[in-house]
Specification:
The strands form four sheets. This protein has a five-stranded mixed β-sheet, with helices on both faces. It has two domains: 3-174, Thiolase/Chalcone synthase (Peroxisomal Thiolase, Chain A, domain 1), CATH 3.40.47; 182-324, Peroxisomal Thiolase, Chain A, domain 1. The radius of gyration is 18 Å and the shape is globular. The protein has helices at residues 22-26, 33-40, 54-69, 93-100, 117-131, 154-157, 217-239, 256-266, 277-280, 287-297; strands spanning 3-14, 18-21, 44-47, 78-82, 107-111, 136-144, 162-174, 182-190, 198-200, 213-215, 248-251, 306-313, 317-324. The protein is α/β, with parallel strands linked by helices.
Length: 325
């Protein structure tokens, strides 16, 4: 039975030049390399330069993804950008990226699901491509979290970094076999009762300010472990796969302990997890595509591999995507 699948054509990432180490942070707030490493696995993060925007980082990642796909902006007809740190309240940062790429056709919009943003954006693009409305999409995660951090608050400022990642996806008519390439299953969830556990204390309709990130870390951690396990299970079941079939597990990179916990629950070997949290920290919606870009560039993720992505973040939102690379 012929069916349309959303197939990965290219992937790329962009990281700002400036590296901020744990020791650098220990000179600003009451923290230490030892505490940050032990509790999170983070060693360093990248910080956007003055004048460097979410749109410029997103456009750089998009160009890198187009290069690996051997495609040009005119081949793309949809841009979905996941970000919680837009250049402006409006217009959508996706249209700035569209203009930077020189695209005057198609459609571009932002998706806001915080750290789960890339999973939500990829699932959104998948639905549009499968419906036949668009043929090829750029799905981007780009964040400048350094701009919404309270640099006096040691419980949050040590955890996040800046960057962007992108994939190019294409609708292809395939046989519908489990072994066909493309997205096999997506699962999205949210529960707004927990919106005050991880949020920004400002906004256009409330305070009229941008605000700063606030988080009840231990509470987020507690929910992350169970919610991630539930959504992974639902996604695998939907596709008819078992955890032992997964070649690469590409989780949102928030905390090394959460990644290890999720992998343990799945019964996956540690060498099957793509880890970038040590070098990038938590780049919110950019973390999964940045991890995909790193693992694809160094040859770990290859065409035909079964890849499971998952994320959980503010909202709460959480979700997973299973893809035959
Ligand atoms: O991407 C979105 C999803 N976000 C997450 O998944 C984050 C989930 N949460 C976490 O990763 C962890 O909860 C944190 C890394 C944020 C915190 O780790 P924790 O093991 O839950 O530590 P805690 O918040 O319970 O704090 C333990 C102690 C506290 O001191 P007392 O009360 O025991 O004296 C904190 O004040 O560590 C203290 N502390 C710090 N010490 C040094 C908190 N932040 C720091 C710091 N440096 N940066």
């Amino acid at each position: 039975m012929s069916t349309v699948r959303t197939v990965i054509k290219g992937v790329g990432g962009y990281l700002p030049e400036r590296v901020l180490t744990n020791d650098d942070l220990a000179r600003v707030v009451d923290t230490s390399d030892h505490w940050i490493t032990e509790r999170t696995g983070i060693k360093e993060r990248r910080i956007a330069a003055e004048g460097e925007l979410t749109s410029s980082m997103g456009a750089a990642a998009a160009r890198a993804a187009l290069d690996t796909a051997g495609l040009a902006p005119e081949d793309i007809d949809l841009i979905v950008l996941a970000t919680s740190t837009p250049d402006q309240t409006f217009p959508a940062t996706a249209v700035t990226i569209q203009a930077e790429l020189g695209m005057t056709h198609g459609a571009a919009f932002d998706v806001q699901a915080v750290c789960s943003g890339f999973v939500f954006a990829l699932a959104t693009a998948d639905s549009y491509l499968k419906s036949g409305q668009f043929k090829r999409a750029l799905v981007i995660g780009a964040e400048a979290f350094s701009r919404i951090l309270d640099w006096q608050d040691r419980t949050t400022c040590v955890l996040f970094g800046d960057g962007a990642g992108a994939v190019v996806v294409e609708a292809q008519k395939l046989n519908g076999a489990l072994t066909d390439r493309g997205i096999l299953a997506t699962c999205l969830r949210s529960d707004g009762r927990y919106r005050d556990k991880l949020y920004v204390d400002g906004g256009p309709s409330s305070t009229g300010t941008v605000g700063y990130l606030r988080m009840d870390g231990p509470e987020v951690f507690r929910h992350a472990v169970t919610k991630i396990a539930e959504v992974i299970d639902a996604t695998l079941r939907q596709a008819g796969y078992k955890a032992s079939d997964i070649d690469w597990f590409v989780p949102h990179q928030a905390n090394r302990r959460i990644l290890d916990g999720a992998a343990r629950k799945l019964g996956l070997n540690k060498d099957r997890i793509i880890i970038t949290v040590d070098k990038h920290a938590n780049t919110s919606a950019a973390s999964i595509p940045l991890a995909l870009a790193a693992a694809s560039a160094d040859g770990r993720i290859k065409p035909g591999n079964l890849v499971l992505m998952e994320a959980m973040g503010g909202g709460f939102t959480w979700g997973a995507v299973l893809i035959r690379w």
